[in-house]
Hints:
Order of helices and strands: EEHHEHEEHHHEH
Radius of gyration: 18 Å
Strand content: 15-25%
Distance between the termini: 13 Å
Number of strands: 6
Mean pLDDT: 89
Shape: globular
Low-confidence stretches: none
Amino acid sequence: AKTVQPIQIDRDTMAEITVLGVLGDETGTRTAQICLAHGFGDGGEQSCLLQKEAVSKLCLGVDIPYYAAMSLDGISVLNDAVGGIEVTLEDDFSTLDSSMTTGTTVTLRGEQAEYYVRNRMNIGIGTSEARNARQQDYWKKLNQKITEILDAEDSSAFLNELYAALEPYLTTNLSRGELINAAWKTKDY
């Protein structure tokens, strides 16, 4: 069987991105942090298309037919939909939540999940690399939790409920059915 592995591209990766002018028209390309490609857009579909183009160029023209972006407000919704994710904190997040101290094992709830995957300034060494490591750990545990739920429950009902909860936070060119099918297919990645 063919094994597909998701990749994480560091936001600071230098890549060729399309630059838009004040009126939204393309003014050319430049080499910049790949994360800026999304920022030149409208925060929705246009941003996703610019990001997709930048990633495709970075990957030497690999076709990227689909995109799905979730606003940061959706992190806590996704986290809570699976009952929270248990992590042992290697860094101190107590400036954001007093219960999130180094060495503590917590089941992240609500905003705690966003703090864990999003924040980097004044957290540990404060680098994108350290945050990426936390994100990878969180994503792995989230995938495990979703797989457990899918294996134990009526998977179609759970995925439909999850999609309904996340829909306000999503920008994608996949239909509801395509996105749910993709989630099912990728559950073992």
